[in-house]
Design goal:
The complex is a heteropentamer. Chain C is an alpha/beta fold. Chain C contains ten helices and ten strands. Chain C has one domain: P-loop containing nucleotide triphosphate hydrolases (Rossmann fold). Chain E has a domain of 152 residues: Rossmann fold, CATH 3.40.50. Chain E has a six-stranded mixed sheet, with helices on both faces. A four-stranded antiparallel sheet of chain E has the order 2-1-4-5, with helices on one face. Chain E starts with a strand and ends in an 8-residue tail after the last helix. The chains are: A mainly alpha, B mainly alpha, C alpha/beta, D alpha/beta, E alpha/beta. The complex binds adenosine-5'-triphosphate (ATP) (2 copies) and magnesium ion (2 copies). Chain B: Keywords: Amino-acid transport, Cell membrane, Membrane, Transmembrane, Transmembrane helix, Transport.
Chain lengths: 329, 286, 235, 379, 251
């Protein structure tokens, strides 16, 4: 509980401090990173805490984005619209999840890929509603009750807040009984069942939450980018988020957010400086795997631990006692 | 009637192409449990290598051999240098092979440029057969033939040698296989190289049909992943059947449900996985 | 034949083997006893190369083992029946047996273990030949693990709790089998919890506690020494 | 003042002109992007790196053919690089995404390739000017000739995506207006590896001709498979300008022979400017230019002319002169139609001939000054 | 009235029939031991009772309620819990976390997605009680996969007991344990409150005779005898197929 509090305060400070050092474009990029971080965290939730690796998560993102674009033509209340997005994407996750969670591991990966592709084609072919492959402009304007949000700075703060809220909600879930149980199911499904848990309910719960959150991210993105196209649900986009989650660190909440930031910055800046960006990007991924400790966040932790441990030894570390006992039981 | 037969044959030939493309992936993914996202890129590389050596006035067949050898060598290098660090770590494999595919694809673009290319059909097979009133390219029949040959080879390796059992055991419990006196590292390198060589081979043989262009690697990859999954992991026979199934259904789908043509392979996969969550021939997961 | 000299092993920072010294001579069976977590399995793994020791020397027929990889050690003629069986779950019973099969190199008149011989020893494996290894009952898996090790035709067998999960009547059989194996010239290092079995087949008993060998002697010696039994084995 | 910290004020006063490119350098559109860049750079080189009397600095961004990425790159070019003019995208979905933004930010976008019809109709913007051609132009140009000289019934094929549909509807409109009849429309998915089932269906209709629009590798496969399945020589094949372009005819080789196309450019066009252009291009890049190189070249040309005429790179000044601007291009005279912001240009009915092992589109007839209707005839 | 009643169940894997009309009755609080040669079908019987494997025919009642179609997790809530012959734990979690997972199963807040588990004091207390009782408090932060085999066996039993079952099925609880741990576990089992009925598969005869009220002997999937320890000990057939000559060790 205390941990949540500290992290939240740190995050708030971060959100507040960033505009001081960023340029216009930097603010824009940071806004996008917040949204992508929410998206990556939603995938990180099922990957790291439920063992479900999805290659169709952009499907939910697309649902959220298109909901704002399409229904936003008729509904102007932003809160209502966001709620509708979240409900639609959550419901879709719930319904498809019932079928999908019967498959496991790689099969799950592939069936979700098919799901994402299905939505992609749907958005592509329902031209009268979605603008088809050419995409459509978003007419809805974000208004949270204190005026229309149009300036980059306003967007920045709104998305920053959304990111923090998403983080807190996820943190609560992960620490909650249901979250811990879901993690247990990821470790050993059969045993959890034998211990008396209805494993499918928990998997479905996680999948639904994750889908709803991805939809939420998508709807924010729609407001931000004011243009939607089927690419939002393409498998390459799903693949990118997956990469974000992995490079950030699977099994942590914040890792995927870090992964998203790093990935987007790399993708953006390397390609600006060289046409050979795929090669450099690829090399970075390879290097990350080879020297990685399972994600960038673990490096941060590693550094933190170094500092932290030094402190402890200064105080005459109580941890050492445990260590000694471990030597031989 | 004759158009029906023609389309059946078309589908079959196309399915065999799928099988060739997916074979290397099946082995690496299904047997070694390594997700090789660079498979499509190796396919592409295979085609480009043939392209290069043909332009050097070499015979198609010699160029093909060179392509297979070079991709195999690349496979060895990759395994020894990189892949061997990520056995059993699926997510790291994803990242690593994804990165590799980026790199290789960009190198290909660097060397061969962005223009689209095709491989000429080898002179020997550059003819069309007239079957009744319809015309069918000989080269496609040749692809069917090679597909069958490949299936035969895989069948031989699996049932007449211990190699298949050793690899599967190695995936189950690598240390234990070592303790039984088998050099697991060597076996895995060999298998990875074999898979890479198959990618190269299918690229060389598929080149005249599909051509080469930037971005093709992803399409090839997705297609082969789908074929493998429909068939069921760990079963090349499954891939064989599923490739033909996908080829035939897709061909007829183009005619009967033209509006679904973008989706059809994905739909097949979805339906199969809903009915059989472990694929057609996959082992049931306990 | 096998000689450990002051072997030290760690898992990370946990100090497990704290200077283990013993030897097994040719054609003998040595039993290693001790409480759970004493380090017996670690000892076996260290010999088989599955775990690297930090210090000390392990010699087998005049060869140093520490720097060798498991498959090289196996090729020197050391077979392993691991704790918990570690049957390959995606292989059938038959594949489990044949995948590692090796013919005996030297023609020294000992049994050349092959599929037929194993099936003779454990007929039930033949009946289940086509089943996946993990579809066997616990005891059957144990037989399979022993069979699998024999298929490599070792000169030296490491057995980690071979009687675990076996019915008494089968334990008797295993005991007889071990004695028979010994008669064919095989040397054995066996970790056991079943003291009766250990005493029945072993020529020498070692007791390990907290990573050290704390007692060694003959089976008779152990049977007579109630204090040791009580102190280290909790009997 | 330097460009880096430049704001609006620096744009007009500075001697440097900063041009941002949003192209698709990865993926299937890579060769198109490369052609455009090459053409643009060639023009620059010929003019000492100056356009409209200003030193030019260019910045190229890769949109991966994805509007979402394109928008991010766009923001970077505008906010961070502060470019004066954009030259843009390959794909229509990207141009539609950018359209609203450039309008908002008042930045001139020279559309160097995206062919979506609506950009000239319902989504026309004062800030967006197309230099290439529209799907409508591409589809309709050869229709009359085909109906009058080749045959009255046609099976038409195009990929199942907006451009495919737009090209075919334009063709059908014009073809049927000229007395022809489209008997079947087939839409394979984008990136179809195997056209056999479609070819089989098409030939089953026994049409007088088959008309097709396929780009990139789809185009190569379609043309080669047309031959492999024995249709070549049986049913005449006609197509859009893509089928007369080096990108497809070169790899397709012999299979592309005999196709009748409506092209707006070929390196073999007989005019003085083209001869110079082709020679210079071959010298610099070691290969023949194609339509995309010309689009790049013309993008530079139009900027050059517009900035000169406007006397500044200020958007508001530029859009005043861009409407109705005309200049000579290697493909012939070009005028930007103020009604559609789309170029009025010549199309050439050509037939692919085999010459020295390569394919040369031989011009049969010139259709002069092909325009677009002012509003969509389909609504 | 019996607590668990297994009536004529049969089970086969493809062509291999493993259980033939097996019947079994366990009264509340009874200690029922199942013995039989390897491969007799004991574990399969457990798997059928807990519905990890569907039965081919027959019926199973718990407290008079037919349970053969209920899913495994449902059974836990009816008061039936089990251990596995092969350790089946959460290797990457610590001992403490393993226990937490086992303890929450019956809590009403197991579906709660907001309030942190760590702040639940009841779980903490129960965990501490178990750790202290079994003198493994020092191991609480160790990842389970790093425990020795015998320690893992103990944890296996503790997890099953955590749900406070009415009936507990133990599959070879002492296999792999040293004589010391075996004795300790045997003692623990004996000390379990009589409110828990036990069905135990066991090969260690000392343990069997120490705990059994009743013994059922399974052979080739058939019950060949079900009776008191005395009856079983003296049965010639059981001696032959099961005890063997080695019976002397526990005579
Ligand atoms: N991979 C590992 N990492 C860390 N510690 C380990 C690991 N494996 C074993 N240990 C620890 O090493 C000690 C010795 O383990 P070992 O498996 O050798 O015991 P053992 O004598 O074989 O016990 P048992 O009779 O229970 O099998 C134990 O305290 C155990 O917790
Ligand atoms: N999934 C399965 N598929 C096929 N056969 C199986 C399967 N599970 C068990 N068997 C077979 O059923 C028989 C009974 O197995 P079971 O595990 O019930 O024996 P057990 O009595 O528990 O033996 P042990 O004391 O050795 O553990 C064995 O012959 C085994 O090979
Ligand atoms: Mg052990
Ligand atoms: Mg059993």
């Amino acid at each position: 509980m205390k941990k949540i509090f500290i992290y939240t305060v740190l995050l708030i400070l971060l959100v507040l401090a960033m505009p001081l050092v960023l340029s216009d474009f930097g603010i824009n990029l940071a806004t996008e990173i917040y949204i992508m971080s929410i998206f990556a965290m939603s995938l990180g939730l099922i990957m790291g805490y439920a063992g479900m690796v999805s290659l169709g998560h952009a499907g939910f993102f697309g649902i959220g984005a298109y909901t704002v674009a399409v229904i936003g033509q008729y509904v102007s209340n932003s809160y209502l619209l966001l709620l509708i997005s979240v409900v639609i994407s959550g419901l879709t996750a719930l319904i498809t999840g019932v079928v999908f969670i019967r498959t496991s591991k790689f099969y799950f990966l592939m069936i979700t890929l098919a799901f994402g592709q299905l939505l992609y084609v749907l958005f592509w072919q329902l031209k009268p509603w979605t603008g088809g492959a050419d995409g459509m402009s978003v007419s809805a304007i974000l208004n949270l009750g204190f005026g229309e949000i149009l300036s980059p700075n306003a967007f920045y703060y709104v998305m920053g807040v959304a990111f923090i809220i998403a983080y807190i909600l996820l943190r609560l879930f992960v620490e909650s009984p249901a979250g811990k149980i879901t993690k247990g199911i990821m470790e050993n499904e059969a045993r959890m069942s034998a211990l008396g848990y209805n494993v499918r309910v928990y998997k479905l719960l996680a999948y639904t939450l994750s889908g709803a959150l991805a939809g939420f991210a998508g709807s924010l993105y729609s407001y931000f980018n004011v243009f939607v196209s089927p690419d939002l649900s393409s498998w390459t986009f799903s693949g990118q988020v997956m990469v974000m989650v992995i490079i950030g660190g699977v099994g942590t909440l914040f890792g995927p957010a870090i992964g998203a930031s790093v990935f987007i910055c790399l993708q953006n800046f390397i390609s600006t400086y060289t046409e050979r960006w795929p090669m450099i990007m690829g090399a970075i991924l390879v290097i990350l795997v080879l020297i990685g400790k399972g994600g960038i966040i673990h490096w941060l932790r590693y550094f933190k631990d170094i500092i932290f441990l030094r402190k402890q030894t200064d105080e005459g570390a109580p941890q050492n006692q445990v260590k000694k006992e471990e030597v031989v039981n | 009637m004759s158009i029906f037969l023609a389309q059946l044959l078309t589908g079959l030939a196309y399915g065999m192409l799928y099988f060739m493309i997916a074979a290397g992936l099946t082995i690496i993914l299904g047997v070694m449990n390594v997700v090789n996202l660079a498979h499509g890129t190796l396919f592409m590389l295979g085609a480009y290598i043939v392209f290069t050596f043909i332009s050097d006035e070499l015979n198609f067949w010699i160029a093909l051999l060179i392509s297979v050898l070079l991709t195999a060598v690349l496979g060895i290098i990759l395994e020894k240098l990189l892949i061997k660090h990520v056995y059993g770590k699926e997510l790291e494999q994803v990242l690593l092979t994804f990165g590799l595919s980026f790199i290789i694809a960009d190198v290909v673009k660097w060397i061969w440029g962005t223009e689209m290319q095709t491989l000429p059909v080898p002179a020997l097979l550059d003819a069309s057969l007239s079957i009744g009133e319809m015309v069918f390219p000989l080269y496609r029949l040749f692809v069917v033939f090679i597909g069958c040959l490949l299936a035969l080879l895989l069948w031989y390796l699996e049932s007449k040698t211990r190699i298949g059992a050793i690899i599967r055991a190695g995936v189950d419990d690598r240390a234990m296989v070592g303790a039984l006196g088998i050099n697991v590292g060597l076996v895995f390198t060999g298998v990875f190289a074999f898979g890479a060589a198959l990618a190269g081979l299918s690229g060389a043989l598929g080149g005249p049909l599909i051509g080469m262009y930037t971005g093709m690697d992803n399409e090839i990859l997705v297609t082969s992943l789908i074929v493998v999954v429909i068939g069921g992991l760990g079963s090349w026979k499954g891939s064989f059947i599923s490739a033909i199934l996908v080829g035939v259904i897709e061909t007829f789908g183009k005619v009967w449900f033209p509006s679904l043509s973008m989706l059809i392979v994905f739909l097949i996969m979805m339906v199969v996985l809903i009915i059989r969550p472990q694929g057609l021939f996959g082992r049931e997961v306990a | 034949m096998l000689e450990l000299q002051d072997v030290h092993s760690y898992y990370g920072t946990s100090y497990i083997l704290q200077g283990v010294t013993f030897s097994v001579s040719e054609g003998k069976c040595v039993a290693l006893l001790g409480r759970n977590g004493a380090g017996k399995t670690t000892t076996i793994h260290t010999i088989a190369g599955l775990h690297k020791s930090k210090r000390g020397s392990i010699r087998f027929k005049d060869k140093q083992l520490q720097s060798l990889s498991p498959h090289q050690i196996s090729h020197l003629g050391i077979g392993l029946v691991p704790q918990g069986r570690r049957i390959f779950s995606s292989l059938t019973v038959k594949e489990n047996l044949t995948m590692s099969a090796r013919k005996r190199k030297a023609n020294d008149g000992r049994i050349n273990w092959g599929l037929e011989k194993i099936y003779e020893l454990f007929p039930v494996l033949k009946e289940r030949e086509k089943n996946l290894g993990t579809q066997l009952s616990g005891g059957q898996q144990q037989m399979l693990a022993i069979g699998r090790a024999l298929m490599t035709n070792p000169e030296f067998l490491l057995m980690d709790e071979p009687s675990e999960g076996l019915a008494p009547v089968i334990i008797d059989q295993v005991g007889d089998i071990i004695i028979k194996l010994k008669e064919t010239g095989l040397s054995i290092l066996m970790v056991e919890q079943n003291i009766a079995l250990a005493c029945k087949v072993a020529d020498e008993i070692l007791i390990m506690n907290k990573g050290k060998i704390v007692w060694n002697g003959t089976p008779d010696g152990l049977m007579k020494n109630e204090e040791i039994q009580h102190k280290y084995l909790g009997v | 003042t330097s460009v880096k910290d430049g704001s609006n004020e620096s744009k007009s006063s500075s001697g440097t002109l900063k041009i941002g490119f949003i192209l698709s350098q990865t993926g299937t559109f890579a060769p198109l992007s490369e052609g455009i860049i090459n053409g643009f750079k060639l023009y620059l080189e010929k003019h000492d790196g100056m356009l409209g009397g200003k030193k030019v600095e260019i910045k190229v961004e890769d949109d991966e053919a994805n509007p979402q990425v394109a928008l991010r790159k766009y923001r970077q070019l505008i906010h961070s690089e502060k470019v004066d003019i954009l030259v843009g995208p390959i794909s229509s979905s990207v141009v539609y995404a950018l359209r609203d933004e450039v309008e908002k930010d008042k930045i001139v976008l020279i559309d160097a390739n995206a062919a979506g019809d609506d950009l000239s109709w319902s989504k026309k913007s004062d800030y967006v000017y197309r230099i290439s051609f529209s799907n409508w132009q591409n589809g309709s140009s050869a229709a009359k000739y085909l109906a009058n000289n080749v045959g009255k019934t046609a099976v038409v094929l195009a990929p199942d995506y907006p451009a495919g549909k737009e090209v075919l509807r334009a063709f059908k409109d014009a073809f049927e207006a000229a007395g022809g009849k489209v008997v079947k429309e087939l839409y394979p998915k984008l990136n179809t590896n195997d056209f056999a089932p479609y070819l089989q269906q098409a030939s089953a209709e026994n049409p007088d001709l088959i008309y097709a629009f396929f780009t990139g590798s789809d185009g190569i496969r379609f043309v080669t498979q047309y031959k492999e399945f024995g249709l070549k020589g049986q049913i005449p094949l006609a197509g859009t300008l893509e089928f007369g372009d080096e990108l497809i005819t070169q790899p397709a080789g012999e299979a592309a022979e005999g196709i009748i196309t409506g092209i707006n450019y070929s390196p073999y066009l007989d005019n003085e400017l083209n001869k110079q252009f082709v020679q210079a291009y071959e010298e610099k890049y070691g290969k023949l230019p194609n339509i995309f190189s010309v689009q790049g070249y013309d993008s530079a040309a139009i900027i050059d002319k517009a900035v000169t005429e406007a006397g500044s790179a200020n958007s508001e000044d530029l859009i005043k002169v861009l409407k109705g601007i005309s200049f000579d291009s290697p493909r012939g005279p070009i005028t930007i139609d103020p009604a559609t912001n789309n170029p009025i240009q010549n199309f050439y009915i050509a037939k692919n001939k085999l010459k020295d092992g390569g394919i040369v589109p031989e011009v049969i007839e010139t259709v002069e000054n092909v325009t677009m209707p002012e509003t969509s005839p389909f609504e | 009235m019996s607590l668990l009643k297994v009536e004529n169940i049969s089970k086969s894997f493809k062509t291999l029939q493993v259980l033939y009309n097996v019947s079994l009755e366990v009264k509340p609080g009874e200690r029922h031991v199942i013995i039989g040669p390897n491969g007799a079908g004991k574990t399969t019987l457990f798997n059928c009772i807990t519905n990890l494997l569907p039965i081919d025919s027959g019926s199973i009642y718990l407290d008079g309620k037919e349970i053969s179609k209920l899913s495994p997790h449902h059974l836990v809530h009816l008061g039936m819990s089990r251990t596995f012959q092969k350790n089946n734990l959460f290797g990457d979690l610590t001992v403490e976390e393993n226990l937490h997972l086992a303890l929450v199963a019956k809590k009403s807040y197991r579906y709660n997605i907001f309030s942190p588990l760590a702040s639940r004091s009841d779980i903490k207390k129960e965990t501490n009680r178990i750790l202290d009782q079994w003198e493994i408090s020092s191991r609480r932060h160790i990842k389970v996969k790093n425990l020795s085999y015998g320690e893992q066996r103990l944890l296996e039993v503790l997890l099953a007991m955590a749900s406070n079952p009415k009936i507990l099925l133990l599959d070879e609880p002492t296999s792999g344990m040293s004589p010391a741990e075996t004795a300790q576990t045997s003692e623990m089992i004996q000390k379990l409150p009589r409110s828990i009925a036990l069905v135990v598969i066991e090969h260690d005869m000392e343990v069997v005779f120490a705990i059994a009220d009743r013994i059922t002997v399974l052979h080739h999937g058939e019950v060949i005898l079900s009776g008191s320890p005395e009856e079983v000990r003296n049965n010639e057939m059981v001696k032959e197929i099961y005890f063997g000559g080695g019976a002397k060790q526990h005579a």
